[in-house]
C-alpha cells in the first residue's frame, strides 16, 4: 500500500491504527527527535526525554493546526469571559476590594462585612462560578477531544485538519463530558468521605487524632493518584470510541505500574508551561502594577487567553504520546501497526 501523505485526497486512507505506508519509517514530525532504530521505526517505547522531545517536534511541525484547534474554543471563551466580567461589574468589585480589602476594613466594629462588601463577594462568586462551569462543561471537553484526535492522526501519519478534529470532538464530546463529571464526582466522594471520617474521629477525643491525621494523609495521596491514573481518559475515549466510565477504566489500566513515570512527565510539562506563561505574563503584570485592580484583572485575562492558545497544546500532545507509548509497552501496539502495514 502506497504511503499516504497529509493533504493528498487521491490516496486511499490506511486501515484504522495503521501507519502511513507499507515500509516502516519514521514520519517527518519525529525524524528530528530520534534516529531510526533497528526495527519498526517510530512505533517503539520512548524514554521520558525522547517523549518530551517528540512532543516539541510534533508541536513545531503542526504549530498552525494545533494553535487553531485551541483558538476555536479558547478565543470565544475569552470573549465571553470579558463580556460577563463587564456585565457583572467584576472590575468595580475588585477595585473596591483592592482599596478597602474585604476583611481589612470591615463595615462594622465587630468584624462583620458591610453590605457593599457582601454584594461584591456575591458578584465575584457568580462570575467565577459561570467561568468555571463553561470551562469545565464546554471548553475542556471540546479542546480535549479535538486535540486528541489531531495529535493521534499526526502520530499515525494520517491527515489532520481543523474540521476533522472538531467533527470528532462533537461526536465524542458527550462521552468526555460524562467522564469529566464522573471524575469530579469521584473526587467529591473521596473528599466527603475524608471530611466525614475526620469528623467522626474528633468525637473520640485524643484517641481520634491519629486516625484523623491518617485520613487527611490518605486524602492528600489519593488526589494525585486519581489525577495521574485517569489522565489518559480523553485519548481512550476519542481514539478507541469508549464510553465515559470505560474510558476512565481504560486509563486506569494503561497507567497501572507506570504511575511515577506518567507523573514525572506531567510535572515536567506543567513546569514548562508555567515558565513559558510566566515569561509572557510577568513583564506585562509589572507594567500594570500601578493600574486599578479591575484593569489588571481584565488585562490578565486577555493575556491568559493568548498564552493558553499557544502553550496548552503541549500538554495534550505529551499525553497522547504517553497513551501510545503505554500501548506499545503493554499491548505490543508496534507489532499491531507493523502487521497492519503489510
Structural summary, described in words:
This protein has 342 residues and is mainly alpha-helical. It has one domain (43-341). Helices cover 74% and strands 0% of the residues. The radius of gyration is 24 Å and the shape is globular. The termini are close together. The model is unreliable at 1-41 and 102-109 (pLDDT under 50).
Write out key terms for the chains shown.
disordered N terminus, 0% strand, 74% helix, 342 residues, single chain, 13 helices, mainly alpha, globular
Chart the SSEs and their pairings:
Layout (H helix, E strand, L loop, with lengths): L27 H4 L16 H14 L1 H25 L2 H11 L14 H41 L6 H41 L6 H21 L3 H8 L3 H11 L4 H29 L5 H19 L1 H19 L1 H9 L1
Helix pairs in contact: 2-12, 3-5, 3-11, 4-5, 4-11, 5-6, 5-8, 5-12, 6-7, 6-8, 6-9, 8-9, 10-11, 10-12
Task: Please give a quick description of this structure.
By secondary structure, the protein is an all-alpha fold.
